[in-house]
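Thread: quick sanity check before group meeting

JM: Hey all, I'm pulling together slides for Thursday and realized we never actually wrote out the predicted structure for the chain we discussed last week. Dropping the sequence here so it's in one place. If anyone has concerns about the input, flag it before I start.
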Amino acid sequence: MTAVLWWIISSLHTAAATGGNIAPSTANRPIPQTPPNFSTSSRGNPVQAVTVAQLTNLVLENQYLDLEGALKASADIPPVARAFFEGVLANRENRTTDSLRELELALADYAEPLAPDLQTIALRTLADNYTKAFRYGDAADTYSRLLKINNSSLTESDRKILDGSRQTMELLRNAPLQTVVFHSPFQLPTKQNALGLAEVQLSVGGQQQSWILNTWAGQSLVTVSLAHRLGLTVTQATAPLAGPGGKIVSAHAAVIPELKVGTATFRHMAVLVVEDQDFYIPQAKFQFNAILGYPALSALGSVTLYSDGGLGARKPLASEKLRGSQMMVAGLTPLVAVTIEHARRLFLLDTGTQRTYLCERYWQEHKNELVGQQPHDLRIGGEQAVPAYTAGSVAIDVGGVPVTLKSVSVLSKPTATGGDNYYGVLGQDVMKLFGSCTLDFHDMRYVCKRGAAPVKKAGGDADDDDD
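JM (edit): ok, ran it. Output follows.
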């Protein structure tokens, strides 16, 4: 994916990662979760009881897989602290209702105050929960509360992003609740556009329009011209949004009365509305008109992306137990537990980037194996080029299938992307190794299956080890 394109997608993602601009989903109910083993850590070792300080470090380091087991093994955690940790974990496991209950308890006026860093995380997570539950006014109020905290760890940039999220929630304070009616399983054909992204034809008010699919886009988006063609009521007020190249543009908001995706019907779907010229890519002579982001895709329940082109969706069965990899969410970004070197590590899942790469955390653990190489520059997200090394062969298990990455880039420094907080980023190259990849947002599983898809290269090269 080009650097400019990454800026567009990550701009939508970044705002959502703080708790979300317009980022609703229907994951506002308790969802059964079946992690592989609560009694062991991500490395498969028995978990010992830990202290509040150790649990705090797991949260700050985004080690949610280890947080699961540590909470299970630690019975003597003070009630308010436990409510905080359980609330954060429930949010990452897509159990929005449970997370709301725990965090409202942890932040209650009568509760013992949390430390400023934990209070900041709790309020960000609470705002994300309110957004997913379509309680936009509550989300705006929570952002306002967050901005009043005297927390030195919040930079001026952080505060601008949070205030942008607050402004967007204000735009939607009186918006109706989104609903989704799912009639039967379906599969729609997709096509690749000039930028290599999948597009699908959707119906809004009887009008067919091509929408780009992207799980990393934190909110759905349409241009002003398309909003007018669809007869949408667009807010006069605006909120800031980082556009191509990081330029701050003004985004309006609107609510689509009805949008049909296959046999599913969305009602009252909130979208950002941007000026056409702000999302035109002159280098590629490409105009973005509509993006269907994570909130809508996750609301479909179980979404399957086919490597030969196609989008499938169905309502998960209550009795169904899927294999594959555990999935989590950070804000509105899917995370996948990838097994690497006998340990489960969280990777970002980005259907909008073409190549898989490993992040600085991998580098810190393996730099002695790579320092003899001449680094190459890898440009991630339109930022300054990052020195990267090449791992010749890395065995992973993703979606329940073993794969060997060959000649995969390893970033040696942090970037401005969300991938810095995790072990790596899974791109289209790995997904195209399989006939299909399913994101089940009900049981939070990521399942890959071999099929008629041709063998592709991943990272640099890749082999499906399970042939």
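AS: nice. The chain has twelve helices and 25 strands. The chain has three domains: 27-171, 179-314, 325-464.
JM: adding both to the slides.
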